[in-house]
Structures are given as structure tokens and as C-alpha cells.
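Aim 2, interim progress. The first record below pairs a target sequence with its C-alpha cells.
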Amino acid sequence: MSRTTEPAPNAPPAPSHRPSKAVYRRRRIVVFGALAVVLGLLVGAGVYADRALGAPVPFAVPAIDDPEPIAAEATVVVEPGFGTWAVGATGFDGFMAAGGEDTPMPMASIAKVVTALLVLQEHPVGEGEAGPEIAYTGADVDIYWDMVAQNGSVAPVVAGSSLSLVESLEAMMLPSGNNYSISLANWAFGSVDAYVDRANAWLAEQGLAQTRIADSSGLSLANVSTAADLVRLGGIALRDPVLADIVATQSVEIPELGTIENTNGLLGTHGVDGIKTGTTDDAANLLFSADVAVDDEQVTLVGVVLGGETHAAVRGAVAALVDSIGPGFRTVDALESGRPLAAYATPWGQTATARATEGVSVLVWSDTAVDVAVEADPLHLADAGDEVGTATVTAGGEVVTVPLELDASLDDPGTWWRLTNPGGLDEGAAAVQPSPRPTPSG
């Protein structure tokens, strides 16, 4: 038989097994707080990852290899020791050497160089051609005898003969025929006076401000110039192939006149191949050109000596000038193709080198320094073959610029390096950004 136990009067209630509301609240706080921390960490990690993966990579600053300037000892020039003089070279600025080069002096028959240039300007002749025919008359014979009476240099002329323009110029330039300078001025310009006006205007156009022409022959002492101007005039003459060929000729056979000899006794020696003698009552002059060999190249000197006592003294001075100046030219290999000139290294271990894309050799004289200045850009990301800077070679007035090319790529460091190197990222660099990350599929 069962027995029911009744609770004792006034006994406390039995404990309940359900959590109270306060306990529920505490548990919710703990759970949601933990979730908030986890979410915060996840959000923070996401922000960090996004920033790290999207930040520009730092610059790779080049370590530049700037070559030392190249120079040699100064060339010792054997100077004339008299008169005024100057020597330049085609393709070079200024003079190799000079003395009294801005002092005006009578130039005598060197003035015929201007006559020849302006006649050829009025009546151009193609290289290898003879030019128009010129008829000579009794008036030209009278000019011949007038020049003889003035003790001027002449070349024979025959009334009724006909010479080509080139033959006429040869008769004027080689034996320094004053009579032919007058006959050519009359033929080309109508009169010597008209020629003189044109000649002085042309000199002004060429910037030969210290040169004055008084006649077509140079017989007058009023035909004056400076050594500096005459070197420039010689350069202009050599640029005319017809005139350059004439002044390099030692002798020529002209049927109507016979053999015509050049008065320049240095032709064919010491590399001399022009240009014009000049003689006054008091002095001898020579405007000259000479070719000197430098390795596989050839340099043309243009110079003048004014005011020598005799032509022999002037020839000796010019020979010494040429022989002392020529060895002072040299070829300098300033830069070889492929030479490394800047090195790059990234914080994530990649390296690349900027190299010269071509070699540079320069021709210099005496102690002219050859300098190479290197400029290379700081880089973020770059591909092999990119142009990243320049090497500038300077030698006197010559300047050559060569591009620098990268020999290897500087690639993005990748996700892992970015996430593990927060201090290695340059957040302020506004340059090449990494490629966008692909959106996951799925």
C-alpha cells in the first residue's frame, strides 16, 4: 500500500532547475561580446589585408655607377713665333691654338677665295662639271698688262680664247692670277665695283665682321681680315666641292694656257691640301688645310699664318703647327654597349641592372675631358627592357645621350610578402599599383 508524504507545514519551496533571467542576460553578454571580438578581429584583419594587398610597393632606389672623367695631358703646339695665326678643325668648336687671331692684317691674294666663292654662287657648277664657257677678248689682255705693270701676279690670257669657268678659276687660284680675278668679276657681276659691294654684303651675312674686301684680287692693302675670320672662311671654301678640288691641285694643263702651277709649296706634304697663298710687299701669308689621320678617321685642320717675312718661313711654321697639332687628336671609348650603370634591389629580394643600350666613342683633342653623367629613375614595378634613365657623354661641345635599359623585371612581391611586411609598404607612394586580385569564382 502506498503512502503519500505530505509536505511539512511552512516548508520552503523546492529549488527550480530553470536559469533565471539574470543568468540569461549574463550569458548573452558573454556570447555576443565574444562574437563582437571575433568579428572585430575579422573586420580588422580584412581591412589590414585589403590595405596591405592594395598598397603601392616601395621604390627601388638605384645605386648609380658614375664613370670617372677621362682626360689626357695637354698637347704642346709649336707656335710660329711671328705674325698672327690660328688653327681650327672641321667639326670642332673654337681653335686648337691661336695667337693674335683678332688682329686685322692685310690678307693679299687670300681675298681671291671670296672671289671664287661668289662667282660660283652666281654660276653654280656641279661636281665633276666644267661650267659655262667664258670668252676672253683684247680687254682681258689689257687687264693682264695692267697687272704686270703693278707688279701683281698674273696668268696668261689669249684674246679670242674660250675657257670654262673651272679653267678660269684654276687660272685665278693656282698661280694667283690677279688678271683672272678681275675678268671673272666683270663677267659675273658686271664690274669690280659691283663685285666689291656684293662681297662685303656676303661677308656680313656670313658673320665675318672683321673682313673687308677692296678689290677682287687682294692687291690693295685695304683687303684686310683676322686669323679668326680667315679660318672660318677656309671652312666655307672647303664645303664647296668644286673649289676644294681646285685648291688641292698642284698643277693643271689648260690647252690655251699651258701648264699652270699652284703657288702653295706645301701641297702634298704634311697632309696639306689647300688653300691659298697671299703676298704683300711686306709679308707672306698662307691659308691652309691639312688632313691628319686619327685611328680609322681623318680630321681636317683649317688654319692661317699671316705676316711672315718669307713664304719659306710661313711654310716652316705651318708644317710645325700641323705636325704638333695632329698627334693631339685621339679617339676615346667613353661608353661601351651593355655597360651596367645603375643597380636596383627591392626589399623582397629582386635585383635588376640598368645598362647602356649602345656604345659611344668620341674624337677629342688635347686635354679635352670626356665625362659621362648617369641619371636613373627610382622604380616601383618595371619590366625587362624598360627605359629607366640616360647616360650623357660630354666631350667639349659634343653631347651624346644614350638610353639605359633594365635587364630584368621588378615584379610585384605577391600576397604573402605584402601580408607579412606591413612596414615594407610605401603607403604614400602614388605610383605603379599592383595588378587587381582576381575575384574568386564559385
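The second target in this work package is listed in the same format:
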Amino acid sequence: MSFPVDRIALSLLLLACVILAGLNWLQDHPEDNPWAPLTLDEQPGWATGRKLAALRADLVACRAFLDRSGLPNRPLPPEGAGACRREDRGPLLLPDATLKPQRAEATCAVDAGMAFWLRHVVQPQAEAMFSSPVIRIEHLGTVNCRRIGNGAKGAWSEHATGNAIDVSAFVLANGRRVEVKRDWKGGVDDAAFLHAVRDGACGSFSTVLSPDYNAAHADHLHLDQARRTGGWKACH
């Protein structure tokens, strides 16, 4: 069965219009465009999780993200040996807040995850609940050459390569301090804030472990960028 040439041409024209409209829409919605380079200003969308996950396996792309976002990107020489060899290491510096202790080293993926989480989850939640931004994040460390649970055997912790951070508290501009250990089951607002930022961290990190996971995490949120097949995540 044949079609008149004009009907074929019209069909091709309509198809081209649909494709063009789709491309224009994707250009205006980078958060839903898997081919658009990730930036810190991008609002979370359908494609954002995949873009963040891709940074865990691609150091060049991760550092390019930091550059595009105007974040400090000063990689340090590799150090360590064996399971604690750190090929990817740099100073952890946040765009919208400081760290305490200030000196912290981590992988590029942790740096990127912290920046995106702080910009799109922590700060909006702080403004919504307390009408004040977070100015400091307190942590218990990033690098620790040890196995999970500090045992002599078993899998190595992501801390062994600086691919994790343990967040213990948030300090707001109005002087309020929200502490994981004290406030996880404390005041309604403080507890709600901590649970909200824990849930939101699951979009920026591969692993999120909170006091709900076990007693070992009673005083912090463990955030890491472990690389897993199939995009599987752990969020507790």
C-alpha cells in the first residue's frame, strides 16, 4: 500500500516538529535532560540522580562539575597504600557553609554530593523550618584507614579512601545548633529537620546511614559515595 508523497512529507514534518519541541523543552529543563552537564544551580529532576551517580565513576566529569559550579577544585597528590590508597583526594570545601573541623579531605564525589545536598536539601529545609540558613556543618571525620565496624576482618569502610563523611550537627545563622545525637528524637522541629535532610541526602549519596540504622550511627549521619552495580543505594 502506498501513500501520497504529500502525506509522507507532512508526517516527516510533524515528526521533525515534535523532535524540535522536545529538544527545546529539554534545553529549558536540564534537570530532566540526561545529556545536559550537571551544575550546582540545577534543580533536582528526573535525570539529576543519574548525573550525580555518574560522577562517582568518572573523576574527570566530577572535577568538571566542580569547575562549572564555581567550587574550589584543588586535587592533592595520591597517598596511602593497599586498601587505604587514596588516588582521588582533595580538600573538602562547601559553597554555602563552613566545616568544623575545617580541615577535611575527601573524594571528588563526596565533595560534589555535599555541595548539591547542602544547596538543594539542607539550606531549603533550614529556611523553611527555622527561617535561617546553615552556616556550619560539624563532622566526625572523612578519612580513616579501617574496616567496617573497626574489625580485623571484613569489608573496608569507605572512610578508608576518604569516600565518606560523618555529619554530626548543623549550626544556623541565628545561633541554633541541631545535633544528631541529641535531637534525632528530640524537639519536633529539630527532629523533623534531621529526618528531612537524611531523606534528602539519599538523592546525592550512594549510602546514607542514620540513628535509625543502628546504635553505631546514633550520633551522626554517615554519607558515602560507594560505587555499586545497578545503581543500588542504601538509605536508612
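Strands lie at 90-91, 98-100, 105-106, 134-139, 164-172, 177-179, 207-209, 221-224, 234-235. This observation will shape the mutagenesis plan for the next reporting period.
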